[in-house]
Amino acid sequence: MKSLKTPYYIIMFCCICACRQNQISMKPYPVSEKEDVSDDYFGTTVADPYRQLEDDRSEKTAAWVKAQNEVTEHYLSQVPFREKIRQRLTEIWDYPRYGIPFREGDHYYFFKNDGLQNQSVLYRQKISDGEPEVFLDPNTFSTDGTVALKSVDFSADHRYAAYNISRAGSDWQEIFVKDTQTGELLNDHLQWIKFSNAEWLGNGFYYSRYDRPDESGQFTGQNRYQKVYYHTLGTPQSSDQLVFEDREHPLRYFSAQVTEDEEYLIIYASEGTSGVELYFRQLKQPAGKITLLAKGFDYNYKVADHERGRLLLLTDHGAPNYRLVSVDPNHPKPDNWIDVIPETTELLEDVSTGGGKLFAFYLHNASTKILQLDYTGKIEKEIRLPGTGSASGLSGKRNEKTLFYAFTNFTTPSDIYQYDIPEGKTTLFRRPETKFDTDDYVTEEIFYHSKDSTPVHMFLVYKKGLRRDGNNPTLLYGYGGFNISLTPSFNIANIVFLENGGVYALANLRGGGEYGEEWHKAGMRDKKQNVFDDFIAAAEYLIDHQYTSARKLAIQGGSNGGLLVGAAMTQRPELFRVALPAVGVMDMLRYQKFTIGWGWVVEYGSSDNEKDFDFLFRYSPLHNLKEGTAYPATLITTADHDDRVVPAHSFKFAATLQEKTGGNHPVLIRIDTNAGHGAGKPVSKNIEERTDMWSFVFQELGMKIEN
């Protein structure tokens, strides 16, 4: 491969931007070194001149990252209200936040963050009486708060707690074990774990792991041959018992579940993010074999509980809006299933159990509704929520009488409620005290029509007294994929935007799960363009109805939502003033070659298939940037330890966009260090990232900060 251009330290062109409400000077973009690299896809030659940026551990890439961050910081350092935004974010972020309490033995456990702690702390408290005490403090795991606590699982006798940690935002996890009575940390230390918790049985637990990767490919190499193991306490990981593997299918996920009564081991197999195959083993039969329960991978399944020799299965098999069925493992054919909670016109999002009851969580226009039922499926009552929003929790052991749940919406931080099962009574347990007035804001729900006339639901949040004069700065957020539902939730960082006159819009696009599996499938694979059309139509609605204008409209999304933003800005660049693609999947022709990208093939399709290549190539953000087009002001964000959507996607997109854009709007990339895809990011890093994001948005939209 020969070099086509001089190294990136040479100036490509000088983009001096004296624009917007203040004079912001732009440093020249670093020139990214190009190479003569291309691939042949079924007779179509596709150039990939920035492929060397896929090597995120090379010295050249490190120098490129440093140079790009310097350009971004040069811009942001000139925003006159950047420090005001940081101060306001720090002020409003500083309030106590609590998680949902859960019972283990004679203790309640709960997470709490005092306000600005980098990681929330796990406390416990005697149920009878006593003061809360720290059980696990992730802030002690590292000096900078970049080691996060991912999950905690307790043994059946409550004596031991296995907890997962993640370093620097990576998907790689490690498991440690703590004695709950003595507080002692055991010698058990398990590594090379992804997408797994600890499922206890007796003196050990099941978990899923990969083989140790080569050091060079730890954060980019394709993950293959996940396996289920059983670990016995006090033994080295090397002696763990292999429970389940599939040598014929290296690109599958496998995970384990043990039913609460420890009667059954359930093995979940999946070829991607959608579609499951189920296996089971009867644990109290010494020679019990692992047996197929539900053949994959056309449908989704989740075991909710075991009841008198039958498994309760939440599934979309024969029910796109999901149903709960009772299955005899010895006669598992669908013809033998018995409906416990039949399918309805609303999505049955989840079924939790506790206190001998079933709790059915439904979505009505992306907001939660909860029904309490007995194990025969008889509806006993609806648990009335305080308004339109999202609820979670109501989960516990069969012998518990008290459960807890959380309720939130766009302007309400999570309130915690206590639910007395025998009395059927709900009482407020905890309500956070915030440093802003939630009553100042309005949430509106509307439906608009997409390009093909499909009605799409959207939430709008804004300050009371909004004037629809087409001059309001507006942020449109979307995701639209992987059966994920976007429901009302509180984001403390958005308050800064709202209190300064911003309109926040969240669209429930096809590809998500808000209206069941049919809604999901309408935005998958060759129908992915529906998602982009839905998002573009949302922008057009906001403009047509005078909430905003193209010069005042910003769009935001992360991961699959980053792909959404990338596709929207390349298809309709004139429609948006600012684009904020975060950790996005931008190269749709090569995504499957990195880490667990192969798991998204069921959602997207693969360029290895000719038919799939045709539709992927048509919308792939990286491959649809056109020379000389005036693109929106763009701030791309990614992180050096993102091994979910590797940073190469954002690197290559930024280099290409900087090269090809024909407008005067800045194209910046912000590359965080010691951070990953987003989960577990410390509060300090969140504040810094949101400070920079809002500084960019306020500057480019001509906003004035009022606080």
| CATH homologous group name of the domain at 69-90 and 436-701 | Alpha/Beta hydrolase fold, catalytic domain
Q: Say how many strands there are.
A: 39
Poorly predicted runs: 1-21
What strand order characterises the main sheet?
Answer: 32-33-35-34-36-37-38-39
3D shape: globular
Mean pLDDT: 93
What is the strand content?
25-35%
CATH T-level topology of the domain at 69-90 and 436-701:
Rossmann fold
Judged by helices, strands and strand pairing, the structural class is: alpha+beta
CATH top level label of the domain at 69-90 and 436-701: Alpha Beta
* Total of DSSP H or I helical runs spanning 4+ residues: 10
Structure, described:
It is a single chain. The chain has 707 residues and is of the alpha+beta class. The chain has a domain at 69-90 and 436-701: Alpha/Beta hydrolase fold, catalytic domain (Rossmann fold, 3-Layer(aba) Sandwich). It is 16% helix and 33% strand. The protein contains ten helices and 39 strands. The strands form nine sheets. It has an eight-stranded mixed beta sheet, with helices on both faces. Strands 3, 4, 5, 6 and 7 form a five-stranded antiparallel beta sheet that branches. Strand 24 and strand 25 (357-364) form a beta hairpin. Helix 2 crosses helix 10 (683-701) and helix 5 (529-544) crosses helix 6 (560-571). It is globular, with a radius of gyration of 26 Å. The N and C termini lie far apart (54 Å).
